[in-house]
Amino acid sequence: MEMKDRIKYAKRALDGIALGDCFGQTFFVPDETACQRIKDREILEAPWHFTDDTVMAIGVYRILERYGEINQDELARIFAENYRLDWRRGYGGTAHSILRSIGDGEDWRAAASGAFDGMGSMGNGGAMRAAPVGAYFADDLDKVLYHARASAEVTHAHIEGIAGAMAVAAASALLLNKKLGNYPGEGNVFLRDVADKLPESDTKYKILSAVSVPKESSIEFAVSVLGNGIRLTAQDTVPFCLWCAGYFYDSVEEALWKAVSALGDRDTICAIVGGLVCLFADRIPRQWLGYMERPEESVFFGGDH
Prior knowledge:
63% of the residues lie in helices and 0% in strands. It has 305 residues and is mainly α.
């Protein structure tokens, strides 16, 4: 794959993350209200703002654009700088602590490994930003997995947080290869293929459990088996996202309505699904594009701060 194509596909994944993120965060309203809006397919008017999901994905994209690989020291620096620019973007409590520590000069390795009494974070933050990695290295799955791990380790030292990022990156690579005619899998085949590439983890086995959840399942059943991110962990978030992407990859609109129907961690679920399905599906509602905050127009997309 030529360099111009790598960065083009990575940007497409980033734009998908931003779209899903912007869409999903507009549904952080009481569940009853959200469910009625989902039933009526009622969207809010502009502006739709993105959250930390997109801010951190911008960091990953910028590092790939600049270095052609995940440079962990520079990625940590960009994460901390963009956090400093606007820390009110919905970062979780652990992310606040880690990014402040890095910004204050602590080595990212110590900051990440010190979380949760030395266990490291198993959160979904590594997964939410991983689709550009899979898109960039889509022609080499070994590199996809290596650099996905590297991108997660800067903030997530726990194997679950790392496995979540690897899963999303692998899924994005497979869906892009499907778009390019190099991979035929979908649905349960796709889910097995992603799981087969992961280290031993709860995340891996939750993805395998998604194989037994048919496309026609109710959203309530899917969530009961796979989770919906309410626990903010990789294993409670990524399996449902991959189930959505594996079965609804050919329509951004349908995939995101399905994703937000899970409620739970709405912005992150939709960010992950958006980053994946935008690598296959071409049509995006023009109105949605007009409402969303664009990554390239944000302060986070600039040069060195």
